Amino acid sequence: MAFDGMIIKYLVSNYKNSLIGARVNKILQPNKFEIIFNLYNKDNYALDICIHPNYYRMCLTNYTKPNPTNALNFCMLLRKYLSGAKIKDIYSYDLDRIVCINFEGNNELKDVLNFSLIIELMGRRSNIILLNDKGFIIDAIKHIITSDREILPARFYVLPSFQKKSFLEINSFDEFYSIISSADYINLVDYLSNTFTGFSNTFISNVFNVLNINLNTKDYDEIRKVYDYIKEVINSFGTNNVSIKCIDKDYTIELNLEECNINKFIDDYYYNKEAENIFSNAKNNLSKLILSALKKSSKKLENINEKLKSCENMDKYKLYGELLTANLYRFTGDHAESQVTVENYYDNNSPVTIPLDTSISYSKNVEKFYKKYNKLKNTLNVVTVQKKETELELEYIESIIYSISVATTLEDIEEIHNEFSENEQMKKYNYKSFQKLNTDNNLINKLHKIVINNYDIYIGKNNKQNDYLSLHFANKSDMWFHAQGFHGAHIILKTNGKIPDEDTIFKCAQLAKQNCRASLERNVSVDYTYIKYVKKHPSGKTGMVTYTNYKTIIVP
User: Is 490 in a helix, a strand, or coil?
Assistant: First the structure.
């Protein structure tokens, strides 16, 4: 990310007018990386300071974020010292990614107290540090001990060592050129970004691109153009002559005579990045848990099928017992032979060889055969039921997986999360992380609605919405559509007592195909019927229904 010293210098220059003199109304800490100051200075502002290793930045934000019920320790400390205080000054150190905000406040005795908030925006080493008026650390959001300094309470604050040159301290082009000309470089972009504080590789690359200069140039006039351009950008801080330019997945600032709200861009850019990251992580974490459940259910079904396979010989043991019983008069002795051959009166007296246990008598072998037959019979009865339940469970889990695959927002993921956690059969997996999230609002406000030929059409995005649409929201006279044999959305056509025309019905069937797992296949069968013929599935699983009196449309 190109949140470099140039952007920080620009933002701080622009914040002076709006933030100096602002009073701290509220201090929030949504997470361990972020502090938000609610400020007032003839208008309300929210200063967002984030030290996330990937999304570090400082900007005025228009977004609100949920806060923990119990404030984190560093937030409580900032509230103690800075609540009600006024911002006296804000500045950055050179072109480095370090910002200082000076506050003036009062204690309980109305004594004037001064504090400084140091914001270090340096990737994984980012930090927020509160200092007293003598420069000693009161506390920091992260405690750090390195060879050159300690960020701990009661230690004197020491700036990080600056190992790069300061462009601001260069007084002329000749001085700049002497540094460049004495260096042995292959790529001047890399050399400048590695030599001077505050210049990201993205910023310098864009300068060369704008000026159409070769990256390995050593030409005096071309280097002069680079120097003049950078100087002009810095001199334009505090004006509207600087704008943001997006480059691939990154961004930088450049000269532009058109007005551009860089703060808003930064705010939107990182908010969307974080939202995308949170959604991706939530989706991946939920997928892992659901796939784990799928794996366990699949293994369970595999074991059931093995047991059913063992029951295939059940009738054979019953036959052995009956035939051996009918021929017991022919065999004597306390121990049976290893096998005997008898006539099978169920099959035209054809000979049957019966294997026997030689450690027991013939009558005991009969008991053993009947016992094995009865055991397998009972097993068959039990596992047949278990197989049906497990297949339903697998079908339900696969519907959850489909819902996750088509989820597009964090709210969608939270709905699926809650649905899975509420399912009684799923609780047997003992997922401690599957505690219901407090995000369920009125489902009617979340339904996706479109209008076709003046009819309102509703589309369920997951099992919970499908369940609500089909069993609670729709009227008996409304029409229900669903792709046959595939997991997907329930489509509800609100008829308002009318009989829809064929075009409307076909378009609803197309929607059912588009919103199911077979959306890319050809000639998908879509069933449709009136809601009065749609019932909750006997299994009680969310989103699963049975239906009758239906018709089928083939959607190409």
Answer: coil
CATH superfamily of this structure's domain 5-151: ibrinogen binding protein from staphylococcus aureus domain (2.30.310.10)
Residue in 141, 140, 121 with CA at minimum distance from that of residue 131 = 140
Asked whether 211 and 225 are in contact (CB, 8 A), the reply is: yes
Q: What is the largest CA-CA distance in the chain?
A: 121
Mean pLDDT by 10 residues, the chain (556 residues): 87 92 95 95 95 94 89 94 95 94 87 94 94 95 91 94 88 92 88 92 92 90 94 88 85 81 92 91 89 90 92 90 89 86 89 91 91 92 92 89 89 83 62 47 74 94 90 94 93 93 94 92 94 91 91 94
Tell me phi and psi for residue 49, to 5 degrees: -120, 115
β-pair type (545-547, 534-536): antiparallel
Task: List beta partners, residue 205.
Answer: none
User: CB–CB of 292/300 below 8 Å?
Assistant: no
Cα(294)–Cα(291) distance, rounded to whole angstroms? 5
What is the C-alpha to C-alpha distance for residues 474 and 458, in angstroms, rounded to an integer?
9
Top-tier CATH class for 167-260:
mainly alpha
**DSSP conformation class of 469:** I
Name the residue with tokens 């260096």: 183
pTM of the model: 0.77
Q: Give, in order, the Cα–Cα distances in Å from 474 to each of 126, 183, 427, 479, 481.
A: 53, 75, 30, 8, 12
454 DSSP β-pair partners:
none
Q: Is 25 exposed, middle or buried (0-12, 13-18, 19+ CB in 10 A)?
A: middle
Q: Provide the residue ranges of all domains of the chain, joining segments of one domain with +.
A: 5-151, 167-260, 290-440, 443-555
Given a contact cutoff of 8 angstroms between Cβ atoms, the answer to whether 286 and 404 are in contact is yes
Distance between CA atoms of 91 and 14, rounded to whole angstroms? 10
